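Chapter review: from sequence to fold.
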Amino acid sequence: MSVDRERGVTRAFVSVANSLAEGYDVVDLLNGLTGDCAELLDVASAGLLLADPLGVLHVVAASSERTRNLEILQLQRAQGPCLDCFRAGRLVRVPDLAAAERRWPQFVPPALEAGFASVHALPMRLRDTVLGTLGLFGSRVGALSDDDLSLGQALAHVASVALVQEKVAADKAVLAEQLQTALTSRVALEQAKGFLAQRGGLDMDDAFARLRRYARDHNERLTDVARAVTSRALDAQRVLEHRGAAGPPPTRTR
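The token string follows.
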């Protein structure tokens, strides 16, 4: 492992540990984890699907908008590597997407058109309960190394711990409440992203970047800021014009 990658891995896990110790916004944390996957692993982007109390999967986090759209397509078409991973509760490797078109005829062509050539799906689990899946989308053909898969699985485990802490793991009612909270928070975030994108003439990735920067610079929860924007309690223009200490929000290139 290179020095830069080792530092990145350390930073990612330290960030999560600090969030868990100090209180955290679960949707913000999970979005951060998908971004860490895209940065640290040999993939272009990552997406996270989470099951609701009825076992229905939903997109809860993604490192880019094209990944989010592809995850939604998997759910709409009811086929794809992430769904198979969730159903079986084990790793699904797809080093060459084009060669898997017969297996997922409604998923593979749109995935290829979106610029992806490989997919690896990892289960998010808590003991014997599969909570969702972490999808790792590559822009070129090839299998991930065992080291990359091990790190990806560790990040998936962290996502599971973030959703449900050990002390409530045996309480099914609390588990359902935690999962539903995460899904509801994601809906609020998507509404705010869409509102900011329309208001500011931005794409969805840039809208998310501005929303997240505003929340972090003001030490507020991401979902609280999202709800304030959609309810008009927070002027969207303030979020759009906020520059923060680092200057204008960067345009994402993933």
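Two observations follow directly from the output. Strands lie at 45-51, 57-62, 92-94, 118-126, 129-138. The mean pLDDT is 84.
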